[in-house]
Amino acid sequence: MSDKKSDTILNNLPKSASKLLTVETGRRQFLLGAGASAGALAFGLPRPARAQSRTEITFASAKFFGKETISDVVNAYNEAQSKVHVTYVELPPPSASTEVHQALVQQLARRTGTPDVFTQDVVWIAEFAGAGWALPLDQYFNADTQKQYFPGTIAACTYGGKLTALPWFVDSGMLFYRKDLLEGAGAKVPETWDELATAAAEIQKSGKAKFGYLWQGKQAEVLVCDAVEVIASNGGSILSPDGKTGILNDAKSIEAIQFLYDTINKTKISPADVLSWDEEPSRRPFTAGQSAFLRNWSYVYGIAQDKKESQVVDKVGVAPLPHFAGGKSSACLGGYQYGVNAATKNPEAAIDFLTWMSSAETQLRYALQLGIAPTRPDVYEDAKLGAEQPFMKQLKSVFTGATPRPVTPTYAQVTLAIQSGVSRALVTGKVKEELDAANDRITKIVG
User: Fold this and answer.
1) Fewest beta carbons within 10 Å, which of 33, 148, 235, 356?
2) Considering all CA atoms of the chain, what is the largest pairwise distance in Å, rounded to the nearest integer?
3) pLDDT tier at 27, thresholds 50, 70, 90
């Protein structure tokens, strides 16, 4: 095919995004039949005859890279069968998420069918589904198939009772801890917040760590993540099950946010500086050997093992975040997931590609080559993953408790209300009063 589809995307993007966007256009003729041909490649069987024509679709994704790029993986799909050819449209990286979001919104809103398949930040799923831009996927991926993924990722990919996205990769909040300091204090890895507070205080008192527990209290998206985790670990939630009412001010949520306030002002295991910290400012003291515990994302582990960046090489462990008595560990879900354009003119081809991209085999490839964590629990049992990415293998227990942020098409407004309300609660100490006010704003937004 000509590159008209790709050119359309390029020409209609905002300038800020189009400057960073490139299109992979290499054409090849490949094996016959997606499943059979993949097996043929794996077992070294002869290649089938080249196809004369192929269904053409486009795939737009934020940029990720490692030993391989997404383009390499897309080319592998193109090589694995001869029915579909995918043209890859590379969007900016997640660090430029506003531009990625804007680019996708502009294209999907036109309902031209391009891109046919796309990746999306987990917090955009409800927005795109609510606007009618995402193709419902239940008829293609039944309940048994959905059970092959972490429940939290399926929940995040579901809107209005329908599966409107398919899991790609997952990240979540987790607890990093100093193995040596816990051992020296005769303490176990904490399972409850009370246990963490006790161990952190003891280690601080011993003088072996300046800080007990570091987290992110800056009025930003990461504060919403920290709040989701601690509230869910107490059995609470920010929205009602139907998503039409705020419940940020119920007793469980108030107790959870009060705990965060107390880490600064009562137990004093956290410095007041956390109120202005996001991920990196909170990470640096931990990898400098100054803290017993840290809540952060999976990227921290690699830095902690880098002798040029870290004073705690081989001294760091990772575990699920603690919970309140009677609750369960909760980890705020992050990551990008797949979607199919509701206006695609080639839904069968799009689903074939999506099935391949989200398969266990491809998820393992992403994990090994790009360091992207699988959304299928079974992949974590693969021996090759354990040998080449031992840290990632530890994350299965963490991701089992992955919890999505509020699922609502008005998330962009809801998150600002959460950030403001929780931040004010943490600064003023008027936890119930500030959460009452924030909850009123949230209910008006979603109601």
Assistant:
1) 33
2) 73
3) very low
